[in-house]
Design a protein that fits this description.
The complex is a heterodimer of chains A (117) and B (470).
Chain A: E1 2-8, E2 11-12, E3 21-28, E4 31-32, E5 37-40, H1 46-55, E6 60-62, H2 68-76, E7 80-82, H3 89-97
Parallel strand pairs in A: 1-6, 6-7
Antiparallel strand pairs in A: 1-2, 1-3, 3-4, 3-5
Chain B: H1 5-12, E1 17-21, E2 27-30, H2 32-38, H3 42-45, H4 50-54, H5 61-71, E3 75-82, E4 88-100, E5 105-114, H6 116-131, H7 139-153, E6 158-161, H8 168-178, E7 186-190, H9 196-204, H10 221-224, E8 229-233, H11 240-252, E9 254-255, E10 264-265, E11 269-274, H12 278-283, H13 289-295, E12 298-301, H14 311-327, E13 333-334, H15 336-344, H16 350-364, E14 369-370, H17 377-380, E15 383-384, H18 388-392, E16 403-404, H19 410-418, H20 427-441, H21 446-453, H22 457-466
Helix pairs in contact in B: 6-8, 7-8, 14-16, 20-21, 21-22
Classes of the chains: A alpha/beta (117), B alpha/beta (470).
């Protein structure tokens, strides 16, 4: 299983179409396998990001705000999309692995703005 | 920074999304509209940076917010954001500095306005809304209507010229309404209406104690127009010292309020209007040349009503409908003779004068049609003056001799004189002619003639004796 988190530094990116970074986790039996892979895109593009997610054969993606068009496309491609998520990628991943991550989740770690920029 | 319940109640009554941020750009409060847009409740996102919650794409947003915090000046940015139901909506973000007194902590008030409706309507529709108050089918007015989108699209200074009553104020407001500043104030100031000292204080504001009677700070109209448009009408009457100050504002977009040592920055668009020929004022040293060039970036000249072919009929019918409707009268239009007189009248006061004439007639007329007797008497015996105002307006060649004519335009008058026809020279002569015409029309019946003239029978009898017509 592959989980892709659309990220911005160590946080989930606020917007899918403006993100230029994804963190890819391979998951076996509810645990990550090896180090996560970070892929940088040459520029922000929702369509290119969809292409990358399909190419990576991801099963689940976690993102912030996403447009209906991209959301429906990914769902149609049988990918589980958990959107409107706010939080650090590490904390969000933990919840996802535990099967407790919901759309609109605010994962309170250190998401107070001070450390991100 | 916490929000008092009363303040939150007020914020909830506003039909736009509102967020209060602390100095670290973290959410401290959101109103209900923004809760719906973002899909988060205020208490859920309190303490989280606004960009994660609003999900906008505002260019240099963070930089702008920090600038507002540092300078204390309001800022406006446009962009889009992703809503809770995954819609991308265009929004206008207005950010103002706020300080909660109880904790003396600076923060920001962010108003998120959904402008998708404005965008959907497009510029042309905006123009139609803006132009709905200006009527005209004449080619000269069509030129104005074609020019309007150009004037609205830019932020450059516009000089609107035209005789008195041609609709300079309406055009300035239409430009504002069709521009991107439409959501902000349109403030009109008549430069000729106030003495110099008062005008300076009105325009640029003053601080407490700047002069006797300045008991408190006054922001001034330039600051009140922040983000919007300020229309300085009768700019030709602006005193010379204020012309210098206005020039500075136009160049630097900042000024000192009266008595203040602190500069104030403004983001406004300036539109000016005048019925005077500014170039002539410049030549006579009454208007600064540099300011004239600065104001005359874009120019719109409104034609006088007499040059607007066919518009008199359109406007008079419009005004009858409007004013009769207001008074609850069932007036359908004009009698042939009254219409003829209105069509040939010179209208030195242009559209404003036409409206006043129609308003008078609608009030006087008891029936369904406005006849000659219901028109103001001066229309029958109008005095056309070669007044200073006409001489100063755009076409000096239109100067005409002062004489009294019987409701005819100068063109008809000159034709009459050229044909060797006698021209009425006094009011008594005109009145005598009117009485004779009425008597001959009614076969000498004084009762019918008095009705024709709109007088009482005794008035007619008195005037017949006065002019020895018996």
């Amino acid at each position: 299983m592959k989980i892709v988190i659309i990220s911005k530094a160590e946080y989930v990116a606020p917007r899918f179409d403006l993100a230029t970074e994804v963190t890819i986790y391979s998951v076996i039996s509810g645990r990550t396998k090896g180090e996560p892979r970070t892929v940088l895109l040459p520029g922000p593009s929702g369509d290119d990001l969809c292409g990358l997610i399909l190419k990576e054969d991801a099963n689940m993606i976690v993102c912030g705000g996403i447009e209906e068009e991209h959301y429906q496309y990914l769902v149609w491609k049988k990918i589980k999309v958990v959107d409107r998520v706010i939080g650090k990628t590490a904390d969000v991943l933990s919840l996802a692995l535990a099967g407790n991550l919901q759309a609109g989740a605010i994962v309170r770690g250190e998401v107070d703005g001070g450390s991100e920029k | 920074m916490t929000c008092w319940p009363e303040i939150l109640e007020i914020l909830n009554g506003v039909p736009h999304g509102i967020a209060l941020l602390d100095d670290q750009l973290r959410i401290t409060e959101m109103n209900q509209v923004l809760n719906v847009i973002t899909g988060y409740a205020s208490e859920e996102v309190r303490g989280i940076r606004e960009d994660y919650v609003l999900r906008g794409n505002f260019a240099d947003q963070e930089k702008v917010l920090h600038e507002v915090l540092a300078n204390g000046e309001m800022a406006v940015v446009e962009g889009d954001m992703i809503t809770a139901n995954r819609r991308k909506i265009p929004v206008r973000l207005t950010v103002s500095p706020v300080t909660i007194q109880s904790v003396s902590q600076p923060g920001l008030l962010m108003v998120v306005e959904d402008i998708s409706l404005h965008r959907a309507k497009g510029l042309s529709a905006d123009n139609q809304v803006a132009l709905k108050d200006i009527l005209g089918f004449s080619p000269r007015m069509q030129e104005i209507f074609e020019l309007l989108p150009v004037l609205a699209h830019t932020d450059a200074t516009v000089l609107v010229t035209g005789e008195t009553g041609t609709g300079k104020d309406l055009l300035a407001e239409a430009i504002h309404k069709a521009s991107k500043r439409a959501a902000y104030s349109f403030i009109k100031v008549n430069c000729g209406a106030l003495p110099e000292n008062l005008l300076e204080s009105e325009l640029f504001g003053h601080v407490r104690g700047a002069f006797t009677g300045a008991h408190s700070d006054k922001p001034g109209l330039f600051r009140l127009a922040q983000g919007g448009t300020i229309f300085l009408t009768e700019i030709g009457d602006l005193p010379l010292p204020l012309q210098v100050k206005l020039l500075t504002v136009l160049d630097d977009r900042e000024f000192y309020p009266v008595g203040s040592s602190k500069k104030v920055k403004v983001d406004i668009r300036l539109i000016t209007g005048t019925h005077r020929n500014l170039k002539e004022l410049v030549d006579h040293g009454k208007f600064r040349e540099d300011l004239y060039f600065r104001l005359n970036v874009l120019r719109a000249h409104l034609p006088p009503l007499r040059e607007r072919e066919g518009d008199i009929r359109l406007l008079r019918d419009h005004f009858v409908q409007l004013l009769a409707g207001n008074l609850g009268k069932k007036i359908k239009g004009f009698g042939q003779e009254a219409a003829e007189i209105l069509n040939h009248y010179y209208y030195p006061g242009n559209v404003r004068e036409l409206r006043n004439i129609v308003e008078y007639a609608v009030n006087i007329c008891p029936g369904a049609k406005i006849e000659v007797a219901h028109l103001p008497t001066y229309i029958h015996s109008v005095t056309v003056k070669a007044s200073q105002s006409l001489a100063e307006t755009i076409r000096p060649e239109q100067q005409i001799e002062e004489r009294q004519i019987n409701g005819l335009s100068p063109l008809v008058l000159s034709e009459q004189a050229a044909a060797g026809q006698p021209v009425a020279t006094s009011w008594s002569e005109i009145e005598k002619k009117k009485i004779l015409a009425a008597l001959s029309k009614t076969g000498g019946n004084r009762s019918k003639a008095s009705k024709e003239l709109g007088w009482g029978r005794s008035t007619l009898w008195r005037k017949i004796n006065q002019y020895n017509l018996a």
